Structure formats: C-alpha cells, structure tokens
Amino acid sequence: MKKLVIALVISAFTFPLLAKENKLTSTFVDELKKSVDSNEPISLSIALSCIAPSASGRLIVTKPSYTIGESVGTYLFESGSPKSADLSWLTFEHPNDDWDSKEVSGVNFGLTMPAGQFFITIMKSGKVKAGVSSNAKSGIHEVDCVASEAK
To answer: Is the bond preceding 82 in cis, omega lying within 30 degrees of 0?
Structure first.
C-alpha cells in the first residue's frame, strides 16, 4: 500500500513535466488559431528539420482559414525539389480528440504539390511530423521533424 501511494505521488509530480508545451510550437499554434478566429492576416513562419532531408524546409502562413482552398501559405523545401507546396487547408487538433473543446493542442496542414500532397502536423508539445502522399501510390509516409525559428 505504501509503495502505491509513493508511486501515485511521483506520477502526480512527473506528469506535468511530460505534458509541458514547447514554447516555439505552442506560440505558433496559438497565433495561428487567433488569426483564423479573427479572420485577420498574419505573417508566421517556422523551420522544420526532418529525418528525411527531402521533407525539411520552411512553412510560411499569411492567411489561415477554416475554409478549404482559402488559406494562403506555402512550404519551401530546402532541397528545392519540389520547390514548394501551396497551403490548401488546415485543421486544429484538440486534447483527447474532443472537437467540442475550445482548447487546441496542435494544427494539421494540407499542402498541394506536383503529383501529390504534403502534410504537416505541429503540436504544442513540440511533436512535429511531415508526410507525403503521391497521387500514384496509396498511403501517407510520415517522418518526425524538429521545429526551429525560421531564418
């Protein structure tokens, strides 16, 4: 019984440490959400370094919108091939997938590029993924990325 109480106390103190938000990605998500809700233009950018170098680049968003096709932004690939992907849509992630929650935990981006789509997920926790879907093949191949200040 004593061990159980100690384990519960330790987990109560360590859980908030595990749930901490990353300052850079959290600010990015919050600013984006504020811009979408106010229908105001914004100038946001974030750099991504991915395990697959071909997925690394910089995301620039100037006009986010809940309406598909109305968002304005681009992803500039570091490799230059393809040169860029245009922002098509975005959706917000909510804790525990609770769509009724006003709290946002991350954002998903869908971008179009020649012969496919490029996807980015940026979570407030700092977890970032990028993926590609080719028009010629089924499925999405995702890789982990690290976000940093865009230069």
So the answer is: yes
Q: How many CA atoms lie within 13 A of 21 on its CB side?
A: 15
pLDDT at 13: 43
Q: Residue 17 is inside which H or E element, if any?
A: helix 2-18
Rg (the chain; Cα; Å): 18
Helix residue ranges per DSSP H, 19-124:
23-38
Run means of pLDDT, 10 residues per run, the chain, 151 residues: 43 48 95 95 96 94 95 93 93 86 92 92 97 79 93 80
Residues 117, 121, 127, 128, CA torsion sign: positive
58: which 2 tokens? 């910089």
What single-letter amino acid sits at 25? T
**Class of the domain covering 21-149:** mainly beta
Q: Which tokens belong to 125?
A: 């926790």
pLDDT at 141: 83
